[in-house]
Design brief:
The complex is a heterodimer.
Chain A lengths: L3 H14 L4 E7 L2 E6 L4 H10 L7 E9 L7 E9 L4 E9 L9 E3 L8 H12 L2 E3 L44
Chain B lengths: L1 H15 L20 H4 E6 L11 E7 L2 E8 L7 H6 L3 H9 L6 H15 L6 H29 L3 H22 L8 E2 L2 E2 L7 H23 L3 H7 L7 H6 L5 H5 L6 H4 L20 H24 L25 H12 L7 E9 L2 E9 L5 E7 L1 H5 L3 H5 L4 H11 L3 H5 L1
Chain lengths: 176, 425
């Protein structure tokens, strides 16, 4: 893990290269993370992957969290790993909710990290975040015709009635 | 047309057939030489209900004759929304949920979740709990690899291995039943330590298992290592280069079989893994045979770790003495009002976890198992995500299987060791 000063150095170098890319950093429970502008995801990830001395070449996980009612609403987390130094670095793209039923958009990092393909499909499936440039952005775990983004915080739990023979009559046309 | 040709061909060889069947190597000729390839492509579904897919996995396979030309895995048939359900339950009630994701390595799921919560509340677990966790994790790894061996060999036609593998696995389950009361989905790990200390007689039973298991492994390897059918089915099949594996995010025995000595137990030892002496088996080619060898050797290394942990098992409490997060001992409830209040609060409301987020990864039998939890200060997690190794490793199946035979595809799925409960969550 880069320690807290090391994290600041990375943030500073990134901001010198890409103006305003890193908005803040945080270091908790022994793990450091950069909070970045969602428009600069590819710049930051590419820099962290290819710059000598950084070389976070392994993306171990990509996941999303809904921070509602916090702003910006979504956080897309990239868990980077440098296998040589055994260092993990979190990168969090703070993605605001555009509202009006529109879906938030982030650039897909599948060209940098091919492993992200399934991860990004999963994030799209559950949170409705569109990854621009993803080769095959479809739902992965939910049915193809499913409506809604089930892991968002405003999606109700238990919202779907379970069909049994005793309540068939209450949901006419369920077989269609 | 090609079908009738090949039928004629096989008829001729049967006429000649003074040779013993199987004595000569099967010639892998291109049956469609000269035919219009595009016309011969056809797409079939393999699964979701197919015994060789190790669960409810559907593979849309485009075939040219018997050769796989394109493959698309379709998952989600056993998706049960566990991550969403976790958000509606207090932290201690989440443990049984995450256990049921990867149903063959439930101790690992528990450890990933408990470990991340312990980091969020900065709770150090006692040494004895660390050792007990290591013992159970490694027994779980042995159990998982034995089920893998049993089911893989049944896919390759060796049905006797299935009985042998399940016979030994049952002994591990007996041990789990003894210490935790359940054979599967034990809920044995708690935030702060383990639920109960190991009972009397556990150590003796475990030692007899440790003494017996190496000879059993010798027997399995005597059956498989020089088995002509097994070798031909596995050698040089399903090779993906080490570099490509890393790009695809593959971890665990698949990556180690390709020659990358990456094991989280060694590089970032959590629990008490730093105290033990063990080796990391790696392969050279990265074919199915290497994957088999790596897993068999991992069982031996796990036995070594369990033995060392049992020898060095420290005395002391098995769970942290932290009344804000850990249930008080049962006997205190009858005498202490304080204990009763703590018990009541912990069971009804649960404990609150200060706001924060953490990612914690451990080495499961299938690779990096990570758990990501966002806490918002309430008694329920705001987000629980499990990075399941089966889910990520499935991405390599396409490259393993392209331009190979359907029979090799079955072998590749088996060597992948996918657990669909973990993939679909």
């Amino acid at each position: 893990m880069p320690d807290a000063p090391g994290l600041e150095l990375i943030a500073q170098e990134l901001n010198e290269g890409f103006e305003g890319a890193v908005t803040s950093t945080y270091f908790e429970h022994g793990q450091g993370a950069l909070v970045i502008d969602p428009e600069r995801v590819l710049d930051v990830l590419g820099w962290l992957r290819d710059t000598p001395g950084q070389e976070y070449r392994f993306l171990s996980s990509l996941h999303c969290a809904d921070y509602m009612p916090g702003e910006p609403r979504f956080g897309v987390h990239y868990e980077l790993l440098c296998m040589q130094r055994v260092e993990r670095l979190g990168v969090k793209a703070a993605v605001p909710d555009p509202g009006d039923g529109e879906l938030p958009q982030v650039d897909s990092c599948t060209n940098l990290f091919p492993t992200a393909e399934f991860h990004e499909r999963e994030v799209y499936d559950f949170f409705g975040i569109v990854f621009r440039g993803h080769p095959d952005l479809r739902r992965i775990l939910m049915p193809e015709d499913y409506e809604g983004w089930p892991l968002r915080r405003d999606f109700p739990i238990g919202g779907e009635p379970v069909l049994f023979t005793h309540n068939e009559v209450e949901t006419p046309g369920w077989w269609e | 047309m090609s079908a009738s040709e090949s039928a004629v061909g096989s008829g001729q060889s049967a006429d000649q057939g003074s040779d013993l069947i199987g004595a000569a190597p099967v010639e892998r000729t291109d049956a469609l030489e000269g035919a219009d390839r595009e016309e011969e492509l056809f797409t079939v579904n393999m699964g979701p209900h197919h015994p060789a897919t190790h669960g409810v996995l559907r593979l849309v396979v485009t075939l040219e004759g018997e050769v796989v030309k394109e493959l698309r895995p379709i998952v989600g048939y056993v998706h049960t929304g566990i991550e969403k359900s976790c958000e509606d339950n207090s932290y201690w009630k989440v443990i049984p949920f995450v256990e049921r994701m990867d149903y063959l390595s439930y101790f690992f799921n528990m450890e990933a979740f408990c470990g991340v919560v312990e980091r969020l509340i900065d709770l150090e677990i006692p040494d004895r709990a660390k050792y007990l966790r290591v013992i159970h994790l490694e027994l779980n790894r042995i159990h998982s690899h034995l089920v893998w061996m049993a089911t893989t060999c049944i896919d390759l036609g060796a049905i006797s291995m299935f009985w042998y593998g399940f016979r030994e696995r049952d002994k591990v389950l007996d041990l789990f039943e003894m210490s935790a009361g359940q054979r599967m989905h034990t809920r044995y790990f708690q935030v702060g330590g383990v639920f109960e200390d190991i009972p009397r007689g556990f150590e003796a039973k475990l030692r007899s298992f440790l003494a017996e298991m190496p000879s059993r492994l010798d027997q399995y390897e005597a059956i498989l290592d020089r088995n002509e059918i097994f070798l031909r089915r596995t050698k040089n099949v399903g090779i993906v280069s080490r570099e490509r594996m890393l790009e695809l995010g593959i971890t665990g025995p698949l990556l180690r079989a390709a020659g990358e000595p990456w094991d989280l137990r060694r590089v970032s030892p959590s629990l008490a893994y730093g105290d033990f002496d063990f080796n990391i088996p790696i392969g050279t080619v990265g074919d199915g045979y290497d994957r088999y060898r790596v897993r068999m050797q991992e069982i031996r290394e796990s036995l070594r770790i369990v033995e060392q942990a049992l020898d060095g098992l420290p005395e002391g409490p098995h769970i942290a003495d932290e009344r804000k997060f850990v249930l008080p001992p049962r006997d205190e409830l009858a005498t202490s009002m304080e204990a009763l209040i703590h018990h009541f609060k912990l069971v009804t409301e649960g404990y609150r976890v200060p706001p924060g987020e953490a990612y914690y990864a451990i080495e499961s039998p299938r690779g990096e198992l990570g758990c990501f939890v966002v806490a918002d200060g309430s008694a329920k997690p705001a987000r629980v995500h499990i990075r399941d190794p089966s889910f990520v490793n499935l991405q390599s199946l396409r490259e393993m299987s392209l331009d190979g035979y359907v029979a090799d595809l079955i072998q590749n799925v088996a060597m992948l060791d996918p657990i669909l409960g973990g993939i679909d969550r």
